[in-house]
Amino acid sequence: xxxxxxxxxxxxxxxxxxxxxxxxxxxxxxxxxxxxxxxxxxxxxxxxxxxxxxxxxxxxxxxxxxxxxxxxxxxxxxxxxxxxxxxxxxxxxxxxxxxxxxxxxxxxxxxxxxxxxxxxxxxxxxxxxxxxxxxxxxxxxxxxxxxxxxxxxxxxxxxxxxxxxxxxxxxxxxxxxxxxxxxxxxxxxxxxxxxxxxxxxxxxxxxxx
Amino acid sequence: xxxxxxxxxxxxxxxxxxxxxxxxxxxxxxxxxxxxxxxxxxxxxxxxxxxxxxxxxxxxxxxxxxxxxxxxxxxxxxxxxxxxxxxxxxxxxxxxxxxxxxxxxxxxxxxxxxxxxxxxxxxxxxxxxxxxxxxxxxxxxxxxxxxxxxxxxxxxxxxxxxxxxxxxxxxxxxxxxxxxxxxxxxxxxxxxxxxxxxxxxxxxxxxxx
Amino acid sequence: xxxxxxxxxxxxxxxxxxxxxxxxxxxxxxxxxxxxxxxxxxxxxxxxxxxxxxxxxxxxxxxxxxxxxxxxxxxxxxxxxxxxxxxxxxxxxxxxxxxxxxxxxxxxxxxxxxxxxxxxxxxxxxxxxxxxxxxxxxxxxxxxxxxxxxxxxxxxxxxxxxxxxxxxxxxxxxxxxxxxxxxxxxxxxxxxxxxxxxxxxxxxxxxxx
Amino acid sequence: xxxxxxxxxxxxxxxxxxxxxxxxxxxxxxxxxxxxxxxxxxxxxxxxxxxxxxxxxxxxxxxxxxxxxxxxxxxxxxxxxxxxxxxxxxxxxxxxxxxxxxxxxxxxxxxxxxxxxxxxxxxxxxxxxxxxxxxxxxxxxxxxxxxxxxxxxxxxxxxxxxxxxxxxxxxxxxxxxxxxxxxxxxxxxxxxxxxxxxxxxxxxxxxxx
DNA sequence: TATGAATGAGTATTCATTCAT
DNA sequence: AATGAATGAATACTCATTCAT
Lengths: 209, 209, 209, 209
What we know:
Helices cover 78% and strands 0% of the residues of chain A. Chain A is mainly alpha-helical. Chain A has 2 domains: 1-52, Arc Repressor Mutant, subunit A; 56-206, Orthogonal Bundle (Tetracycline Repressor, domain 2), CATH 1.10.357.10. The termini of chain A are far apart. At the A-B interface, helix 8 and helix 9 of A face helix 8 and helix 9 of B. Chain B binds a DNA duplex through residues 3-6, 8-9, 12, 33-35, 43-47, 49-50, 54-55.
């Protein structure tokens, strides 16, 4: 059980994360200043350094829960017994797209947090792991769909699937169109993209490589 | 025939462009400072303003030729009479991917230079036009491939094709892997991605929407 | 009661204002750099931005109190019942001269802050109002002195009175002679200038327009 | 007799002076760059340094002829035998006002070029002399008008006359209103100002100090 | 726990001036 | 006589971060 102080601290922490999340996703990491976040969070800018080692750490701590949640969602989808492999694969794709569009300008840390920052402790590592497990999920789902075992071919397919999903997200993410609007305008196209890809996968398998 | 002075000027100009190109594509436009470019180019930072009005102008002058060349290449490909529509469409895709990977971190001006900057005259406009004509090319090439006329459906297909190409570029562009290496490692996967997409398009058409 | 921090902040603020005031009035607004002010104030140049949004804001915050005080002083003078109109008018003139000479090279914002800068919100507006109310005061005081109602003629007289006052200020302001010295050397001449002007006004009225 | 080269050089020199004159008077000395002058003059910016040691020298060389001309004009006026002292004094005043308004933003070098630049050779000295001789003219004209010999009193009157003239010029000079417009709008007021001042002088003399 | 004060390094850009030709 | 190339010093302003309290 937590005492008052701890509760308040936690609350401040949350406010900072929330403010940072909104701002980062709206304007991008670089375009947001610490002071801006503090103002939005209703605390002093120095308070931020109480909870997060630096701006970058804040970013990582911020994106982590989202990524975790995404992974969980995708894992659940994959495990659902009552869905066909095709539907599962499609659902995974759409979920990923929506997740990416929600993250907005913050989405690209998903890629940028890479090995280059060797020294910098945990979070980057964690994100890497997440990315890896995400790929694994994609591979599994595709493998199930095409009834093939893990192989280079399957890896290639997973990559290709990722390219399209990633392409959709990064096409619209820097433009700042509200998610709902975008969904109405192009949701069907996104689904069609996935559809076509899956058809292509199947066809490719059928014809033999 | 040019005199010494002109030669030297041209050389400096080139050095600046080359330095800027390298740095922009490696670290991205915003992460590079004028002074950094100058140091890399072996001149004073003020010299840069002798040749380019602005940091932004430098960016445009740098990317414009690439974009023009790309358009020309794609247009030529589309016009080639001796190629099947399928091969043309594939070639267009691969060319676009390679062009994007070459631009590196500078690639995203392709997207970011959009209507929001109404005031900023010519170059942005030119890039917009380029983007538009690129889409038109994509649409035409797909239309030819699937033997369908311009329609909403065709627009959707062009978008989908673009998503995948764009996704490939933006997946690898921020990682800075040398183009040649990347090509060896994944060139085949890129081709396969296009392949699968085209198969998907065909299949989708066949089954009726 | 203020705590240490607040006291220190206030002190820094004052030091900046004082340094800026000295430098501006000595060398003029444009000839003084933020870093110069900081050095004189004994703080870093960034500290200045903690207290003032802008170099321009600093200027306004610096001159505004003077201007307000001047207006109040002139208004009080005009209202004094125990003074003859002549003495009031003279006092107003001398006060204005002294105020202008005190401002030194900063005096000219009084003129330069004009309508051209439409966008720049409050302070300019305030200065404009001040200038206007000053003219009104001048008009009133002269009207009282000459027993004439508001008219074009009165406006012309107010202008003429202003020219002389303004001329005195701008003659000595860029030379940087210390106020006290100047006053000793020429105070009598300034009074005589006003004297002569008032005699001239009277005479002009007497002879018929 | 001059050869071609010399003629051309002289022409370039004139063009530079003319361009600088226009620009300085329009925007003020500080707001005009050497390159701007060169462009306006149709020569390279380096050419300017062939004719003038530096920007400041250019300014002095530029204003000198104007000042000389003014002196000459005022001297001529003072010498005219067919004019009453009053009319001469008025004419001198109006001429000075018009000269100042014509100089525009360049007028204030008339004051600013003062002893502070001890080291800097001739031109400043010359301007000082000019200013002095101008004052002498004013004194003489007033002396004639009031039939008094040189004295402290006369000096004071000359100063006072100067204040008003100077005040008129510096009131309108930074606003950039075209001379002709200004003259139409306020020419009469300027004359009235002089009128009143002269009446005041007379009156003051009459009443005994 | 929390904050206001403070700062050094950095940003793009401008300018008067000099140098080599 | 004339010029384009080149530069060092300066400009206002921003930012992530640290320190004292």
